[in-house]
Amino acid sequence: MPEFKKILVANRGEIAIRVMRAANELGKRTVAIYAEEDKLSLHRFKADEAYKIGEGLGPVAAYLSIPEIIRVARMCGADAIHPGYGLLSENPEFVDACEAAGIAFIGPRAETMRALGDKASARRVAIEAGVPVIPATEVLGDDMKAIAKDAGEIGYPLMLKASWGGGGRGMRPINGPGELEEKVREGRREAEAAFGNGEGYLEKMILRARHVEVQILGDSHGNIYHLYERDCSVQRRNQKVVERAPAPYLSEAQREEICMLGKKICEHVNYQCAGTVEFLMDMETGAFYFIEVNPRVQVEHTVTEEVTGIDIVRAQILITEGKSLVEATGVASQYDVKLDGHAIQCRITTEDPTNNFIPDYGRITAYRGATGMGIRLDGGTAYSGAVITRYYDSLLEKVTAWAPTPEAAIARMDRALREFRIRGVSTNIAFVENLLKHPTFLNYQYHTKFIDETPELFDFKPRRDRATRLLTYIADITVNGHPETEGRPRPRADIKDPKPPVLRSDTPAMGTRQLLDEHGPEAVAKWMKEQTRLLITDTTMRDGHQSLLATRMRSIDMIKVAPAYAANLPELFSVECWGGATFDVAYRFLQECPWQRLRDIRAAMPNIMTQMLLRGANGVGYTNYPDNVVQAFVRRAAESG
Fold this sequence. Notes:
Blueprint (H helix, E strand, L loop, with lengths): L5 E4 L3 H13 L3 E6 L7 H5 L2 E4 L13 H11 L3 E3 L9 H9 L3 E2 L4 H8 L1 H11 L14 H11 L3 E5 L9 E3 L5 H16 L4 E5 L4 E10 L5 E13 L2 E7 L6 H17 L4 E10 L5 E7 L6 H8 L3 H9 L4 H5 L12 E8 L1 E2 L5 E2 L2 E2 L2 E3 L6 E5 L7 E2 L6 E9 L2 H14 L1 E3 L5 H9 L1 H4 L23 H15 L31 H8 L1 H10 L6 E2 L1 H10 L5 H14 L5 E6 L2 H7 L5 H11 L4 E5 L13 H14 L1
Parallel strand pairs: 1-2, 1-4, 2-3, 4-5, 23-24, 24-25
Antiparallel strand pairs: 6-7, 6-8, 9-10, 9-12, 10-11, 11-14, 12-13, 14-21, 15-16, 17-20, 18-22, 19-21
Helix pairs in contact: 4-5, 5-6, 13-14, 17-18, 20-22
């Protein structure tokens, strides 16, 4: 087969960009397609050419329209189509349509998809190949009585699975006969909407299971490599959240066993191109059970690329052009496929973990990604100003971290996630950060229900977004002015900024604060009685500016002059800086944190006692407060400095 000159990517978002990059590196032109609702998606602008499809169709239906995609491919002169993952990537009718149009399909053959892409028929292939499978029904019909009979014979709990597609779509756990009909109908509707086919079957559910999958590459010359395994056990509602390669809990014997099982199935059907063979591992027995084959590139293929050094998408293109595995991968044999280090991938989504992971949408007002050694980003529409719509999957960006050890990879991922700043839409970043630190994750005891059974994963502090709020405030004041200065004349341009006195000493002398800290209030009282000199309290930071400046002296001015008090006036008895109207004005009018003011003054003036004016039951307010409120306020003030 001649080399391709132009490749159309029949997908959107992150995976479309990933394919385009691989094609560009091979010197091929790229074509994007987009629905009307997706016209601002970044993949459209990354391609050499882009065409709108699905006029009058829905936002997802446009990408599922085989005639529309073939029409654009013919019109633009594409000689190959890459389906990405999801959408039409596992539809054998799409492969047939490409073949009929004389366009190469970058993926397995249609007959392979029919044998393996349908999970029910894939089970039969696994059985024929001698690979263990979980007890399951045949494809379900419409007779609910027959379905209930089959379910009872296998035994609850069960898992409903869609025959076509993946990503958790159409999957439902069924714990008893009372849930059966509702869950079956619900799962069918979801599978029909996602893949255009609602077929499904019931499978016995292993309660403590790990999800392990084997990456496969096969060429048209009968050669098949496995690229080792991935751990995909951290899931929420059957949607993968964190993926790793290799699976850190497997022994070398278990690793060899599962990789050989995956390769065995693909050899049985003479598999070509990229595919993933998925297994459940029973944590109690260590046994592996085949669950399905995904005849496409996976979302999590990045971790395998990082630990093997093999570009899976590039290999897909070269294999479809007729190249051998040696030419497509640069690796001479299965023996030469080596594991190097550990990789972990986290999916950053626009879901809100505090609101049942409901996807958010809107405009990204600020975006800062993560970089640095060992960090890889595969993003879709992730940039400042990007518009996230409600029509598509909530995946915003994939972050992959590589390091020599599992612990170092987790630490690197944690650092990367903490670097991210995404504002304007909700994300799951704080949740994933929490997950990576959980002891169950760190000691490899997690399983596919880990998130569902670990409510403390949701105990995290949301990011405060201080920078955005500060910038918004500065912009507002710059454009509209401060309400406190409205109508007032501007200060003269020649006014000089006040400067604090030169410090007489680099190290402040001991003062009353040290006496209080080291010996307590009784010692201070005794010392005061013994004094024959006048004890002076400076009131500039409280009564002085309250009387003269309506309490408008800012914290920054107090803090800048505080070191001069400490160095030049250590003999002062105290500095009054708190109470009266200072709390109210700082908080309401100056938009400052009054507690932070105290902490900063104390840090800059460590040797002099600070003093508060308290109006009895009024505290620092304008009405009577209960004693416990006043006492709590005083306690907080003392703790703050």
